[in-house]
Amino acid sequence: YRSKHVGRNIVTTFEATLQDEQTLALEHELREGLSNGEITVYYQPQIDLSSGIIVGVEALVRWLHPSRGLLPPGEFIQLAEECGLIVELGETVLRMACLEMKRWEQQGISYETVWVNLSPRQFQSPDLLSSIQTILRETGLPPTSLGLEITESLAMKNTDQIMNKLHQLRDLGVRIAIDDFGTGYSSLSYLQQFPINVIKVDKSFTKLSSDEQNPRFIVTAILALARELNLRVIAEGMEHIEQIHWMRQEGCDYAQGYVVARPMTPELLSETYLELSDR
Ligand code: C2E
Ligand code: CA
Ligand code: CA
Ligand code: CA
């Protein structure tokens, strides 16, 4: 028994070491990737449900890994957050997104807002404000064209520190959205204290299956609340045209999802946009 036990411990230790090594290797690769320009950004449009026009785009990071191909954020954001690379990664995405908006503008394409995801650690970094100011100044993008998405779970911590940061960002003129709304089980009364513009209803609530776990009245209630608080609402994860119809009928402002368009390169997005407006 004893030797078996010891043996298991050795195996466990070995596995842990192997995992540490893999993590370290990936961290090293990500650091390299950042300086080699392997980080790229895809954009997914958001449409106005009453006009069908693209009003905004969400910037979604991708890593063009030299051997593993195009990696989605699920493969590296967590690691970046843990090893602190997220601040640099986030700045890279912010800068690219602001530059891209200026480029679209020069092509005669004007979206109202480019939305960028902020990770908790990035949001809490003391340099966030100054780095956003620098990026806006250097790219010449008006602050009102930049939106920042923070997750509900971060926002709802509702500490003075987070509240101050949100107010400072709002004073800069940038727009703020609460991402994945509905998943944080937050007290809704907090919502009215927050200096935000938009809530993004998480895709788990917009599925339209009328099962008990996913009742439609939750979305209806969120929309009513948003109207009271004068917030705009984006429905996320729209995969079927029926969802779009229902959301429009319920008075939701904007929609985003595969049925509208998948995230894509900025080049493809401008081609698609020009094609649509040619019709
Ligand atoms: P998110 O912010 O909730 O972004 C929406 C995710 O849903 C994206 O996945 C998008 O591709 C996907 N999606 C869009 N439409 C549909 C749909 O109709 N159905 C389904 N099932 N999914 C849809 P993606 O690009 O893999 O990003 C995953 C998450 O990674 C994001 O979730 C966000 O939390 C994070 N992320 C992405 N880019 C960044 C970034 O630059 N910085 C940080 N900190 N996080 C990022
Ligand atoms: Ca988001
Ligand atoms: Ca989301
Ligand atoms: Ca999410």
Automatic annotation (TrEMBL):
Positions in coiled-coil regions: none
Shown residues within the full chain: 373 to 651 of 657
Signal peptide residue numbers: none
Domain EAL: 23-277
Organism: Ferroacidibacillus organovorans
Protein name: Diguanylate cyclase
Source organism, top-level taxon: Bacteria
